[in-house]
Write a structure and sequence with these properties.
The chain is an alpha+beta fold and 585 residues long. Among the domains are: 3-173, Carbamate kinase; 254-395 and 433-438 and 527-581, VC0802-like (2-Layer Sandwich). A hairpin with a 3-residue loop joins strand 23 and strand 24. The structure holds adenosine-5'-diphosphate, aspartic acid (ASP) and magnesium ion (MG). The site of aspartic acid (ASP) has 12 residues, from loops.
């Protein structure tokens, strides 16, 4: 007998007929002898309708009342779902988040799960009932109803699978699996047979709306195997698991459309400047991405970062205040940008990935405003109007148009493979940030080009030359251009320093750059789960280093990792500072 969690999204329970069809899936599984927990979203567009109602009453509804309102959507669908099962002769019990015991923090409309009590649900399962759980909702320590953020029913489902030690979590939705990019936008998108937790984490948090990214944090932390399938037709779907071994260079392309860029210009270049800014943003719960600080000239540097458009007004207000305090020259922003990312766990071992991407964008005449990379992804910031065109260009360039995934589904083992004590420790942490390790890499050199012409194709030209010189590039960062001039930095193995210097000359000539610099650096990498989705990780890094008077030259973030570069002489000291800061001693 297996224990299974099945989740049905909004379109899968959009009307009574669909509810009955979904209920039949649960009934079938139950009849086969399995214990079944069903997690249900609100019917169809019900949550949007509720948001619309609130907007008709007031422009700024209180977050508590929003949660009270939005949670009703799921209450309707769970009860109808239970009735459908009962009418088929099954015992079924619907439960709200509060009745299950899904305890969250008090950050209304984006609450995080703190604990889930399992006794009630387990008792019902043992007694032979099918449990229908309302997705997306919980309650805070004061008993207020909370919601987990739009799309949060996925997170309810995977979290329940984790605490109930379920054998698998099945996500039923309106597409028949995870695709290389959104199949509703790109007809050439291809279904993946398997995708790893890390790849899915990146894809989800970089814009692939098919899964709530926090659900994949749970899946990774607790080793929950997930399968994503269509509610409407039978098929193998896509397996998301840690066992997925396919190391494709690029597994998918994601688009985050509603991004905004903020730049603080001419910040006096001193340790602690970034810390002040990011600490205040984090304290207001604003997650920042693509943080780029250029190398700066004349004792000042520009700091650019992206936030979602939704967070832009608050982020600007905070940034303006901090900029004034830091005596920066000013703050600029652009609300009309999009972030395009390529993701693949085989990227680390492949050569010329970035160059291929930049060439494809250059050929499509798309100007790239900012670039950041991490081990398994490259993100570029482009004008919003170029977002979809960029996705199409990248998708084609990496051979994903019409791609046929030949990998075989991974063996889905039991949920908890780690030792029981470790599992208990993790379960206590639930959705907390989990920092697992901090490592120092002294084998890199940093190459920086200043004053590059800001025209489409400049990044392509730089990395074509880098490829020609046979240099193996690790981190790449392009800061937001000012006065028509861009700045690109990248790291290469320190042993290639001489070759990098020679190539730098050629690049400078070919691309019209004036200044180049190759320096020895220390790369510190912090790995864990929840790094991007928890506001404030960057800040936790900046603060102790700033206190020790250590300047960060470059930073790149991903879901599972933050990399920072500092001067080589500060490497060892930075490592011990960060190990202490993140309690890794
Ligand atoms: P549900 O209501 O079942 O939770 P969602 O609308 O949240 O469904 O997610 C499914 C949608 O995600 C699909 O209809 C598709 O348009 C979109 N999507 C975006 N990126 C991808 C992708 N890489 N693979 C599959 N679907 C994607
Ligand atoms: N009903 C909620 C929403 O539409 C949660 C979910 O569907 O996952 O965002
Ligand atoms: Mg969804």
């Amino acid at each position: 007998m297996a224990r299974v969690v099945q989740k049905f999204g909004g379109t899968s329970v959009a009307d009574p007929e669909k509810i009955v069809r979904a209920a039949e899936k649960a009934a079938l599984r139950h009849a086969a002898g399995d214990q079944v927990v069903v997690v249900v979203s609100a019917m169809g567009k019900q949550t949007d309708l509720l948001v619309g109602l609130a907007e008709q009453i007031t422009e700024s509804p209180s977050a508590r009342e929003m949660d009270m309102l939005l949670s009703t959507g799921e209450q309707v669908s769970v009860s109808l779902f239970a009735m459908a099962l009962q009418s088929m002769g099954h015992r079924a019990v619907s439960l709200t988040g509060g009745q299950i015991g899904i305890r969250t923090d008090s950050s209304h409309t984006k609450a995080r799960i703190q604990s889930i009590s399992t006794d009630h649900v387990k008792g019902l399962l043992e007694s032979g009932a099918i449990v229908i759980a309302a997705g997306f909702q919980g309650f805070d320590p004061d008993g207020n109803i909370t919601t987990l953020g739009r799309g949060g029913s996925d997170t309810t489902a995977v979290a329940l699978a984790a605490v109930l030690n379920a054998d698998r979590c099945e996500i039923y939705t309106d597409v028949d699996g995870i695709y290389t990019t959104d199949p509703r936008v790109h007809g050439n998108a291809a279904r993946l047979v398997t995708v790893s937790h890390d790849e899915m984490l990146e894809l989800a948090s970089l814009g692939a709306g098919v899964m709530h990214s926090r659900s994949i944090e749970f899946a990774k932390k607790f080793g929950v195997p997930i399968v994503v399938r269509s509610s409407f037709e039978d098929g193998p779907g896509t397996e998301i698991s840690s066992g997925s071994t396919s190391r494709r260079t690029v597994s998918g392309v994601a688009l985050a459309k509603d991004e905004a860029r903020i730049t603080v210009e001419d910040v006096p270049d001193q340790p602690g400047a970034s810390h002040q800014l990011f600490a205040e943003l984090a304290s207001r719960g604003i997650s920042v991405d693509m943080i780029i600080q250029n190398a700066g000239t004349g004792g000042t540097a520009d700091i650019s970062f992206t936030v979602t458009n939704q967070d832009l007004p608050t982020a600007l207000e905070i940034t303006n205040c901090v900029a004034e305090r830091l005596r920066a020259a000013g703050v600029t922003h652009n609300p009309d940008v999009a972030k395009v990312s390529i993701v693949g766990s085989g990227m680390v071992d492949a050569e010329g990935v970035a160059a291929t991407l930049f060439n494809a964008l250059s050929a499509a005449k798309i100007n790239v405003h900012m670039i950041t990379t991490s081990e398994i992804k490259v993100s570029v910031l482009v004008d919003r109007k170029n977002g979809e065109k960029s996705v199409a260009a990248a998708h084609k360039a990496f051979g994903l148009d019409g791609f046929i995934d030949k990998s075989s589904p991974a063996e889905s083992g039991p949920v908890h493979k780690s030792d029981p004590l470790e599992v208990v420790r993790r379960l206590e942490g639930m959705e907390d940030l989990a920092i697992e390790d901090c490592q120092l890499d002294m084998s890199q050199a940093l190459v920086t080009f200043l004053n590059l012409r800001d025209t489409p194709g400049v990044a392509a030209a730089v990395f074509e030359e880098v490829g020609r010189a046979g240099l193996n590039v690790d981190m790449i960062v392009q800061s937001f251009p000012r006065n028509g001039q861009a700045e690109i930095s990248f790291t290469v193995p320190a042993s290639d320093r001489q070759r990098a210097l020679a190539a730098a000359e050629n690049i400078a000539q070919a691309c019209g750059a004036e200044t180049t610099d190759v320096s020895e650096v220390a790369k510190l990498s912090i790995t864990g789960v929840g790094i991007r989705s928890h506001a404030g990780v960057a800040d936790k890094l900046f603060a102790p280093l700033a206190d020790a008077g250590i300047n960060i030259d470059l930073i790149s973030t991903s879901e599972v990792r933050v990399n920072v570069l500092v001067a080589a002489e500060h490497g060892k000291r930075s490592l011990s500072i960060l190990r202490t800061a993140f309690a890794l001693e």
